[in-house]
Amino acid sequence: MKIVENQSLLSYNTFGLDVRAKWFTRVKDVEVLVSFLKKNKRPLFILGGGSNMLLTKDIEALVLKNEIKGIKIIRDFKHCVHVEIGGGEVWHSFVLWAIRKKLGGVENLSLIPGTVGAAPIQNIGAYGVELKDIFIKLEGIELASGRRRIFYKKDCLFAYRDSIFKKTLKGKIFISKVVLRLDKKPRVNTSYGAIQSVLDYKKIKAPGIKDISKAVIEIRSSKLPDPAELGNAGSFFKNPEISQTAFRKLQREFPNIVFYDLPNGKVKIPAAWLIEQCGWKGKRIGHTGSHARQALVIVNYGGATGEEIKAHAYHVIDSVKEKFNIKLRPEVNII
Fold first, then answer.
1. Active-site residue flag, 331
2. Distance of CA 309 to CAs 31, 54, 77, 96, 240, Å?
3. Three-state SS for 175?
4. C-alpha atoms less than 13 angstroms from C-alpha of 91 in its C-beta half-sphere
5. If you ran DSSP here, which 8-state letter would residue 12 be given?
6. For 36-94, how does the pLDDT look when each residue is reduced to its tens digit (9 = 90+)?
7. Would you state the pLDDT for residue 224?
8. Which residue spans within the chain are E strands per DSSP?
């Protein structure tokens, strides 16, 4: 592996922040990585697509850029297949591969930025589907030892935008490959968000997975700014889940509150609604602010530092806490 010193990470994070890595290398081969880790003495930092992180400072470590590629069917059953994907593959490119192969299960997750290796860390989800719904297993490399480990679904401790890789194993496992289950005869999911409205507008009566993907892309593109044009990391906050008791109290004070009942008995409140009610949607402070079309998104208008963006995020958190007594939690990994 070729190691570069003092590497700018400007083009490797979607907020467009010009922080630097003390050392930087691209990882394209698992065997080379394993061999390297067994003799490594440097501190390490894993980088995927840089789309779900806020870098507030330079990285005083060797940045391992995951560029392990490859997509292949490893098991073929009557109704489904198991697909092995390299951790460095771009997630949306994999979704498009699945659609070309007429394999369903990931079409609702179209246009989510980042790499396949980062998907289990976040347990990515959108429009009624989460990664855990199709997850089989992954291969991870322990940074401390170079040992290969296999993690099945139960090992990952998946939760809402969460996993063991954001908790006890945070920053300790390099995800080299992920195995997912895709369906040969998929049942499309149009029940969440505006998917059905888009299909109705286009007069699509019997949608397939390609139609669902196109609808999701259209919806996301209309709401979310393109990081190539305006630095951002997508949704910055998780949607909070509260108890029925807390919700009833809140509903008495705010009768028009938007909410969703959850199977676990809790109530989900859209973070975007809470943020809008506090007057943050479209509000700009200096070089950063909350996006005008989607309050969940914090953007870099150009020249913002990671600390500025972080400060804006915590101003939003404090105001929502003061008005609704709900503490928003960042979905983005703040470093």
1. yes
2. 38, 8, 47, 32, 21
3. strand
4. 25
5. G
6. 999 999 999 999 999 999 999 999 999 999 999 999 999 999 999 999 999 999 999 99
7. 87
8. 4-8, 20-27, 44-47, 53-54, 59-66, 71-76, 80-86, 125-126, 129-130, 135-142, 148-152, 173-183, 231-235, 241-242, 260-261, 267-268, 284-285, 288-290, 297-300, 333-334
Written as six digits, the tokens of 97 are 């591969």
Q: In the CATH hierarchy, which fold is given to the domain comprising 4-66?
A: 3.30.43
**pTM score of the predicted model:** 0.91
**Tokens of residue 103, six digits:** 């394999």
Q: Tens digit of pLDDT for each residue in 215-257?
A: 999 999 988 898 989 999 999 999 999 999 999 999 999 999 9
Does residue 253 have an active-site annotation? no
Give the integer Cα–Cα distance in Å for 154 and 11: 35
Q: Which of 51, 213, 235, 290 is catalytic?
A: 235
Domain with residues 231-334, CATH architecture: Alpha-Beta Complex (3.90)
The answer to whether the CB of 25 falls within 8 A of the CB of 153 is no
> 54 and 35 in contact (C-beta within 8 Å)?
no
Helix/strand/coil for 286 = coil
71-183: what fold? 3.30.465
How much of the chain, in percent, has pLDDT values that exceed 90?
A: 91
Question: Which residue in 107, 161, 163, 290 is the catalytic one?
Answer: 161
Of 107, 130, 139, 331, which one is the catalytic site residue? 331
Mean pLDDT of 122-139: 95
Domain extent listing, the chain? 4-66, 71-183, 231-334
What whole-number distance in Å separates Cα of residue 331 and Cα of residue 128?
17
